[in-house]
């Protein structure tokens, strides 16, 4: 089906099937779509092809060769429209061919048009030696695809044309077709297997603060969560219900308001909560969500969540959400950065290690209660580990590394020294490169998760289940020899992914490539430029091995469908190319400015290109687009 659409777009403008229609509005009843003309002297020329309807609108007396015209394309797919796939193929198959060497992608945004998900693409180039800009909207309505294309010849006054086209965009009406309620689905993985809340419909409610209590029972391998949420109505209309999403491995028990339990209706993976009353715009209310998870569930990926009698950890999205993680294009969506307070109720001999600052720790009657609060760095993910931990701390030059191990871990003092020294070196490098953070302690925790994963001031280092009991000496070897590049990359996630969080097109590239580049840059600073150049060559070789045929533009890779190795290897090559283009001094200044100016905020690809400047932008575009 997409081939049909591409064929139609590639052939436009083509002779249409009927005489021009001189009317203020074109309406297609079959699709339930109507669009006004930009000016009174424009006409519509509709045509119907194989499963596709095209409508060209242009000035009555002008030729289409003047490139002053717009087009509306309507078609239906066999299944739900994948907007990102459609726009990628349109760019690669249609626009790069039509505009040739003059093609330039100016912007690509995810937005909503008449309440439906859409992607806006803005391009420039020349057709038949006539320079123009093209603005294209791809809109998805279930299995229907609506494409609105607007052309701006650069030789004509842009303001007047833009005013007419704005009337077209504002006047576009798309009737919502009735559809049965969606079946519950397991949300896709986000980048490094982080569960997402893509099933949540957009709502006016945002969450400025979470206050969560986690109670863990090792014998039952059960974690009970009670999360108090402040719901703020950011819309312009009163709202009396809120949609909540929980990862499918959790079971929702109840939702409580200030005085009583609230009615809950679950549909399509989303739980709709009837609030005690309508919440006015810019006002807020408070609810508490009760839910739980148990160990032994086959749906629990070991790299994300582990619940065992010996310990527990959570390294994924587990707090209830009111907004989707991904936008309509599959990219990370901007959301309010919430303050998070984590309270834990554990067996007395256990400890909870989380992000932020430990503000209370009390033990009585066989239970321990601990509280962690996020302060100066707002984490993108509230990760934590639970278990019978004890800490081995090493402090050097104002940076403390606390290594948390269990009685099953056999870790020598030299191994702790080596691990702490590697993390401290990476932390100091990141502080110089991206600005110091008000964090003076990094927690490193042994868990049964796979691999190494960094969060805001917290690093979980995993190893295979059962290794500690059977081969205690291997644990010391595991701790002593995690490669420094891996540790440096995960330490950098305190800055890239937590202090600074990416959104929009290119978000997957920013979240994976910048930490990966830190591993290369830190090695170069510690061991010399020869090592750095060798690591860059290795990254380039890995990238070309992974993408021997059609290469994937990094800024168009959806966050829910990423190849982390490709993002890291090609991303390192792209960042290094930009560094060489602008020079070391200018590059260091740009990276530092990005990290400092966007602390606890969102970073977009446009921000990166603006900071690096036109020279680096010209070098980056072949990698990104």
Structural features:
single chain; 625 residues; alpha+beta; Protein Transport Mog1p, Chain A; Neutral Protease, domain 2; seven-stranded antiparallel sheet; 33 strands
What is the topological layout?
Elements lengths: L1 H10 L13 E4 L4 E4 L5 E8 L2 E8 L10 E7 L6 H17 L4 E10 L2 E12 L2 E12 L2 E10 L4 H14 L1 E2 L14 E2 L3 E2 L9 E13 L4 E12 L5 E7 L5 E6 L7 E4 L2 E10 L4 E11 L10 E4 L2 E4 L24 E9 L3 E4 L2 E8 L2 E7 L10 E4 L2 E7 L2 E7 L7 H22 L6 E7 L4 E4 L2 E5 L4 H4 L1 H9 L3 H8 L8 E3 L4 H21 L1 H18 L17 H19 L1 H14 L3 E3 L1 H20 L1
Parallel strand pairs: 13-22, 28-29, 29-31, 32-33
Antiparallel strand pairs: 1-2, 2-10, 3-4, 4-5, 5-9, 6-7, 7-8, 8-9, 11-12, 13-14, 14-19, 15-18, 16-19, 17-18, 20-21, 21-26, 22-25, 23-26, 24-25, 27-28, 30-31
Helix pairs in contact: 1-2, 4-6, 4-7, 4-8, 7-8, 8-9, 8-10, 9-10, 10-11, 10-12, 11-12
């Amino acid at each position: 089906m997409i081939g049909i659409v591409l064929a139609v777009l590639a052939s436009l403008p083509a002779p249409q099937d009927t005489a021009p229609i001189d009317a203020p509005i074109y309406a297609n009843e079959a699709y339930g779509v109507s669009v006004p003309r930009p000016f009174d002297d424009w006409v519509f020329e509709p045509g119907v092809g194989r499963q596709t309807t095209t409508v060209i609108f242009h000035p009555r007396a002008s030729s289409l060769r003047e490139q002053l015209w717009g087009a509306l394309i309507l078609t239906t797919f066999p299944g739900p429209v994948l907007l990102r796939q459609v726009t990628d193929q349109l760019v690669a198959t249609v626009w790069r061919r039509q505009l040739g060497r003059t093609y330039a992608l100016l912007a690509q945004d995810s937005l909503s048009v008449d309440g439906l998900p859409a992607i806006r693409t803005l391009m420039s180039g020349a057709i038949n030696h006539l320079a123009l800009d093209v603005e294209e909207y791809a809109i998805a309505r279930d299995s229907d695809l609506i494409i609105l294309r607007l052309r701006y010849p650069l030789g004509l006054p842009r303001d007047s044309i833009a005013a007419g086209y704005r009337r077209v965009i504002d006047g576009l009406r798309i009737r919502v077709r009735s559809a049965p309620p969606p079946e519950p689905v397991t949300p896709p993985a986000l980048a490094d297997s982080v569960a997402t809340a893509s099933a949540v419909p957009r709502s006016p409610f945002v969450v400025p603060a979470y206050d969560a209590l986690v109670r863990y029972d090792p014998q039952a391998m059960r974690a009970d969560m009670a999360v108090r949420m402040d719901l703020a109505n950011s819309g312009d209309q009163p709202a009396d219900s809120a949609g909540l999403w929980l990862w499918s491995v959790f079971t929702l028990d109840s939702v409580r308001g200030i005085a009583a339990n609230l009615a809950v209706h679950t549909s399509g993976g989303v739980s709709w909560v009837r609030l005690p009353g309508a919440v006015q715009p810019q006002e807020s209310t408070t609810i508490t969500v009760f839910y739980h998870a148990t160990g032994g569930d086959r749906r629990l990926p070991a790299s994300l969540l582990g619940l065992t009698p010996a310990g527990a950890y959570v390294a994924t999205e587990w707090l209830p959400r009111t907004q989707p993680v991904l936008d309509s294009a599959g990219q990370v969506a901007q959301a309010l950065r919430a303050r998070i307070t984590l309270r834990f109720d554990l067996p007395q001999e256990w400890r909870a290690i989380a992000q932020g600052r430990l503000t209370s720790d009390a033990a009585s009657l066989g239970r321990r209660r601990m509280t962690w609060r996020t302060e100066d760095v707002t984490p993108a993910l509230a990760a934590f580990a639970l278990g019978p931990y004890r800490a081995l701390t090493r402090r050097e030059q104002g940076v403390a590394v606390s290594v948390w191990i269990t009685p099953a871990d056999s870790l020598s003092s030299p191994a702790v020294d080596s691990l702490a020294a590697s993390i401290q070196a990476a932390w100091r490098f990141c502080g110089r490169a991206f600005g110091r953070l008000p964090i003076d302690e990094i927690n490193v925790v042994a868990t049964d998760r796979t691999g190494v994963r960094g969060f805001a001031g917290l690093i979980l280092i995993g190893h295979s289940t059962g290794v500690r009991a059977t081969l205690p000496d291997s644990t010391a070897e595991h701790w002593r020899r995690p490669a420094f590049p891996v540790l440096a990359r995960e330490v950098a996630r305190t800055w890239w992914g937590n202090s600074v969080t990416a959104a929009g097109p290119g978000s997957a590239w920013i979240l994976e490539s910048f930490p990966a580049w830190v591993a290369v840059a830190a090695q170069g600073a510690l061991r010399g430029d020869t090592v750095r150049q060798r690591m860059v060559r290795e990254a380039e070789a890995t990238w070309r091995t992974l993408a021997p045929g059609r290469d994937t533009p990094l800024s168009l890779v959806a966050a829910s469908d990423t190849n982390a190795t490709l993002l890291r290897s090609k991303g390192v090559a792209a960042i290094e190319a930009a560094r060489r283009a602008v020079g070391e001094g200018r590059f260091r200044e740009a990276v530092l400015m990005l990290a400092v100016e966007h602390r606890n905020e969102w970073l977009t690809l446009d921000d990166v290109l603006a900071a690096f400047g036109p020279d680096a932008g010209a070098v980056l575009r072949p990698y990104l687009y």
